Amino acid sequence: MAEHDNPVPEKPEQELPPFVKTWKQFYRLLIGWLVFLILIFYAFTKYFE
Amino acid sequence: MSVIDWAVLILTLVVIVVYGIYKSRGAQNIQGYLLGNQSLPWYHVCLSVMATQASAITFLSAPGLAYSSGMSFVQFYFGVPLAMIVLCITFVPIFHRLKVYTAYEYLEQRFDLKTRALTAFLFLVQRGLSTGITIYAPSIILSTILNINTTYTTLFIGSLVVFYTVYGGTKAVSYTQMLQMSIIFCGLFAAGIMVVHLLPADIGFVKAINIAGKMGRANAIDFTFDPNNQYTVWTGLLGGFFLQLSYFGTDQSQVGRYLSGASVSQSRLGLLMNGLVKIPMQFLILLIGVLVFTFYQYNKPPIFFNSFELNKLENSKYNPELNKIKADYDVAFKEKQVEVNKMNVALDKDDKSLIDRQRKALQQADEKEKSIRKQATDLMVKNDEHANTKDNNYIFLSFVTQYLPQGLIGLLIAIIFLASMGSTASALNSLASTTVIDIYKRLIKKDASDHEYLQASRLATVFWGVICIVMALYASKIGNLLEAVNILGSYIYGTILGVFLVAFYVRHVNGRAVFFAALATELVIIIIGKLDLVAYLWLNVIGCLLVVLLSVIIQSMMKKTGIAGEKNNI
Fold first, then answer.
1. Burial of B532 (0-12, 13-18, 19+ CB in 10 A)
2. What are the domain boundaries of chain A?
C-alpha cells in the first residue's frame, strides 16, 4: 500500500444512484440506452441514404 | 475578425484564466494539487471527464470529418457506455480503496516496480505526444485569422496553457472545465441553429440532412464486417470498448479526473452520466458538419479551406496555373449546383427513380470537384514540398469566420480555445502526476517534504509543457488530428489495458510474466500497425488480448521451470 502525506479519510460508499434502486439497474439502463441509440442511428442512416 | 469578436474572445479567455487561478488558490500540498482533495461532486466529475476528452480537436476535426466522409465516426464512441460500466464495477472502487494518486501506483502493489515503471513510461510517451497535437489544434485558429504561420501561434497558445496549468492544480482544472463545457454546449447549439438559418429558404433542417444523405454524408451506422473499415458498429463496440476502457481506466489524464470525486458513488455517477451523454453529443457535433456540407452545396466553398496555404500559392509563380484551376472549379461547382437543385425537386416529388438518378449525377459532380481540388493541392506541393495539403481541420473554422454573425464568431473561437485549454491542462496535470508520483517520488527522492513534491509537480508541468509545445510544432504534417491522436493511442492503450485486466482478473499471474508479455505485445503491435494489417481500432483489442494470453503462457512456463515469483493479492 502506498503511503501518502495526507491520507484522505474513507468515505461511505452506500449512496444509491438516482432514478433507480441499485447500481446494477443503472448499468442495465445504460446498455438499453446504447441499444436504443444504435437503432435510432440505423433508422437515421436508412431514412436519409 | 471584428472588434466585437476580439472583445468577446479576450473577455472569455481572461475570465476563464482568472477563474482558474482564483480556484487554484489554496492548493498548498501535493494532495490538493494533484487530486483536488477528493471533494468534487458527480456532475463535476462528469463534465471534467467530458471536457478532458472533448478537446478543441473534437470541435475542429469532427465537423470536418462529417463534411468530407460522413457521420460514421460516431460509431467510434459506441464503446463508451460499456467501458463506463466496467470502470464503475472494477477500476473505480479499487483505485478509491487504495487511495492511489495514479493508476500505475496500483500496479506496483499488485505486481512489481518494473511493471509500474513500464506502464507509467508508456503513458508518458503516449500522452506527451498526443498533448502536442492537442495544443496544435487551436493554434490553427489564430493562424487562419491572423494569416501567419502555425509555428508562432502554437508557441503562443502553448505558453498560455502552460502558464495556466502550472498555476492551477486539479481542482482549478475541474472547475474551469465545468464552465467550459457549459459554454461549449451553448455554442454548439447556437452554431447548429445558425447553419440551418443560413440555408436557402426552401431548405429546412430535415431536407438539408436529406441532401447530404444522398451524397453519402448521413452514414451513421455501418454493420459490415470489413476489418479494414475504420468505423463500423463492430469496431466501435469492440475496438472502441477496449480503447475507451483503456483510455478511461489507465490514462492518468482521465483517472485523475474521477479520482477527484468525493466518493466511489460520486465518481461512478460522473462516469455513467458521461456514458449517457457522450454519444448524442458526438452525433450532434457531426450533424453540424453535415449541415455545413449542405450549406456549401449552395454557397461555393473555397478551393482549399486552409487560407494560409492557399495565400502562399497565390503569391507564388504558380498563380496563373492556380487561376485556371479556380476557373474550372467555378464551372464544376455551378454544374453541381444544378444537380443539387434537381435533387431538391426530386425529393419534393418523392420520386424514387429520379432521386436515384440524381444521386449518381451528384456523386459524379462531387468526384469532379474533388479531382479539381486535387490539382490545386498538387500545385501546392509543387510550389512547396512541405505544404500541408490536408484541410479537414479548417472546414468548420472557415465556415465560422466567414458566415457567422459578429460576436458569435468570437464566442465560438473562444470555445475552441477553452476546450483546448481544458484538455491540455488535464493532460499536463496528469503528466506531472505520473512523473512526480511514479518516477520522482518512487525512484529518485523517496523522503522529500510535501512542499518539495509540490514544487516538483509544478516543475514537471513546465517540463512537459515545453515537450508538448515542441511536439505541437511538428503536428502540422499530420493529416486529420483527431484520427492521429486515436491512432497513436491505439498503439499503446491495448497493452496497458491488458496489464490492468491481468491485474484485476487473472490473479495467478505475477509481475515478471506480465512485464515480458507487455514488452512482447508492444513489439507485435508496432509491427502490425506499421504493416497496416488491420484498422487501427483493432490494435486495442489485439494488444489487450495478447498481453492477457502471453501473461498466462509465460506464467505457466515459469511455473514449470520453477522461476515463478510471488504474487500479491490486492
1. exposed
2. 21-49
CB contact under 8 A, B31 and A8: yes
Please write the tens of the pLDDT for every residue from B269-296: 999 999 999 999 999 999 999 999 999 9
Residue B519 confidence (pLDDT): 93
Task: Say which of A1, A17, A44 has its CB closest to residue B220.
Answer: A44
* Rounded CA separation B145/B292 (Å): 19
ipTM of the shown complex: 0.82
CA-closest candidate to residue B183, choices B24, B348, B364, B414: B414
For residue B515, name the pLDDT band (cuts at 50, 70, 90).
very high
Instruction: Return the domain boundaries, chain B.
Output: 3-218+232-296+401-561, 307-387
Q: How far, CA to CA in Å, does B17 sit from each of A19, B163, B475?
A: 36, 10, 25
Say whether residue A35 is in contact with chain B using an 8 A CB cutoff.
no
Which of A7, A8, A45 is the closest to B221 by Cβ?
A45
Any chain B CB within 8 A of the CB of A20?
no
Please give the model's pTM, rounded to 2 decimal places. 0.83
Least confident of B47-51, B206-210, B488-492: B488-492
pLDDT of residue B483: 66
| Domain topology for B3-218+232-296+401-561 | Sodium/glucose cotransporter (1.20.1730)
Residue pair B154/B472 in contact by the 8 Å Cβ criterion:
yes
Residue B322's alpha-carbon distances to B63, B302, B310, B394, B410, in angstroms, are 27, 13, 10, 20, 32
Would an 8 Å CB–CB cutoff place B98 in contact with chain A? yes
Counting one residue from chain A and one from chain B, the pairs whose CB atoms sit within 8 A come to 101
Å between B382 CA and nearest CA of chain A: 38
By C-alpha distance, which of B224, B178, B240 is closest to B47? Answer: B178
Q: What is the pLDDT of residue B565?
A: 52
For the record, the C-alpha cell of B266 comes out as 460520486
Instruction: Return the HEC string of B186-201.
Output: HHHHHHHHHHHHHCCC
Handedness of CA A28, A31, A37, A42 (dihedral sign): negative
Question: Measured between alpha carbons, how far apart are the two ends of chain B, in Å?
Answer: 57
What is the rounded distance in angstroms from the CA atom of residue B165 to the CA atom of residue B34? 12
Provide CB contacts within 8 A for B356, sequence distance 6+: none
Low-confidence winner among A12-16, B155-159, B187-191, B233-237 (lowest mean pLDDT):
A12-16
